[in-house]
């Protein structure tokens, strides 16, 4: 190789450092440097295609990406650092990072995340730092970070977090830094911080802390040794309420001043009778300090030990394991289009850090006479052997479990069957009457005998069945012979022989046997 060639090659690489990466492919408008791809501030709405599979650091900051499409990051299994801060992400799909088993750092700061689903960080077993500051998070649910066993830094500052559930931080045994400053936390439980066995830095400042009995543990914990986790600034945990303790530091408030008032509950009336199809609202008023959380539950009428069913606002079916109709301070039981299934016992519960109180409520469903007839079971088609099985009444649990649409369909089917049976009986009756009223055979001297075993048996009924020609009708008793057996005297005095009775035969007749 001629002298000076290495120098020229070095200069070439200095001027075009991304040449090897570009030779392997690089997304349009992005800049690629070896194993680093920089696509920041390009007004991107989606992750650009064509990112080399061997990329280890990917910059996507300052764009307008609103969603990480499922599988879009799957080819990038070698990623170590991913920066998606200052975008428009509203949610993270469960499993979005499942292929990033080597990822060490994930920045999602400055997006529009309002909640984090369980499983959103599944697959990130090696993640060390997670940045979620500056989003719109309101609450952290149980087991949100369960899949991050090696996480060391969790940045949650500058959100709107009001609730941190007891198991929200479960699984973070390696966490060293937790930043919850500048949120809307009023309280935090001891259980929420228990999983953090490796915690070294805790930031809780600039939250509207409610200094009551529920926060007594935090003041005692800081004084006993927790202050080693707090900087001089972080120790200033200021009370926002109650008013008498506002603007005081939690560390300066005596434990006897951190009090709670157990809740009291009032429901009026305690029993309501509603009509089928009505809407219902029942208010449950609760008082106490801190303001109680009010929850309506439908008391299950099943076996003891089973969980109580909870009622959703608007009368919807409850989700398994989901919350009931709850509110802070006052709770409203709201049922729409009431059916028999809504009838039963309910319970309003109010709870706060000082305790819990419950009040029962009874709902009765009134059926009109017409609705009772519609919901009544149809009569049996024919008499059969008596059944010893219990009948299902309209108010039974089996029928109550049906929805209003199903109940209406059953009632309509019953009514249709009854109407069909009535029409069939009418047609049979008319056909029989036509047969009975049919004119006799031609020839007035003939005796025409019809044998009806189910006809009328009185002369008054016979009068109603005279045919159009006015033929005489009479009742013949089968116990008596139709013609006289002995000789009879005719009108002219001559005797007639046996079997020649009824010398004056009617022109036509109908014989009705009784």
Automatic annotation (TrEMBL):
<keyword id="KW-0325">Glycoprotein</keyword>
<keyword id="KW-1133">Transmembrane helix</keyword>
<feature type="region of interest" description="Disordered">
    <location>
        <begin position="371"/>
        <end position="390"/>
    </location>
</feature>
<keyword id="KW-0393">Immunoglobulin domain</keyword>
<keyword id="KW-0812">Transmembrane</keyword>
<feature type="compositionally biased region" description="Gly residues">
    <location>
        <begin position="313"/>
        <end position="324"/>
    </location>
</feature>
<feature type="signal peptide">
    <location>
        <begin position="1"/>
        <end position="23"/>
    </location>
</feature>
<feature type="domain" description="Ig-like">
    <location>
        <begin position="263"/>
        <end position="366"/>
    </location>
</feature>
<dbReference type="InterPro" id="IPR007110">
    <property type="entry name" value="Ig-like_dom"/>
</dbReference>
<dbReference type="InterPro" id="IPR050333">
    <property type="entry name" value="SLRP"/>
</dbReference>
<dbReference type="InterPro" id="IPR003591">
    <property type="entry name" value="Leu-rich_rpt_typical-subtyp"/>
</dbReference>
<feature type="region of interest" description="Disordered">
    <location>
        <begin position="301"/>
        <end position="328"/>
    </location>
</feature>
<feature type="transmembrane region" description="Helical">
    <location>
        <begin position="409"/>
        <end position="429"/>
    </location>
</feature>
<dbReference type="GO" id="GO:0005615">
    <property type="term" value="C:extracellular space"/>
</dbReference>
<dbReference type="GO" id="GO:0016020">
    <property type="term" value="C:membrane"/>
</dbReference>
<dbReference type="InterPro" id="IPR000483">
    <property type="entry name" value="Cys-rich_flank_reg_C"/>
</dbReference>
<dbReference type="Pfam" id="PF13855">
    <property type="entry name" value="LRR_8"/>
</dbReference>
<dbReference type="InterPro" id="IPR003598">
    <property type="entry name" value="Ig_sub2"/>
</dbReference>
<dbReference type="InterPro" id="IPR003599">
    <property type="entry name" value="Ig_sub"/>
</dbReference>
<keyword id="KW-0732">Signal</keyword>
<keyword id="KW-0472">Membrane</keyword>
<dbReference type="Pfam" id="PF13927">
    <property type="entry name" value="Ig_3"/>
</dbReference>
<protein>
    <recommendedName>
        <fullName>Leucine-rich repeat-containing protein 24</fullName>
    </recommendedName>
</protein>
<dbReference type="InterPro" id="IPR001611">
    <property type="entry name" value="Leu-rich_rpt"/>
</dbReference>
<dbReference type="InterPro" id="IPR000372">
    <property type="entry name" value="LRRNT"/>
</dbReference>
<dbReference type="InterPro" id="IPR032675">
    <property type="entry name" value="LRR_dom_sf"/>
</dbReference>
<keyword id="KW-1015">Disulfide bond</keyword>
<keyword id="KW-0677">Repeat</keyword>
<dbReference type="InterPro" id="IPR013783">
    <property type="entry name" value="Ig-like_fold"/>
</dbReference>
<dbReference type="InterPro" id="IPR036179">
    <property type="entry name" value="Ig-like_dom_sf"/>
</dbReference>
<keyword id="KW-0433">Leucine-rich repeat</keyword>
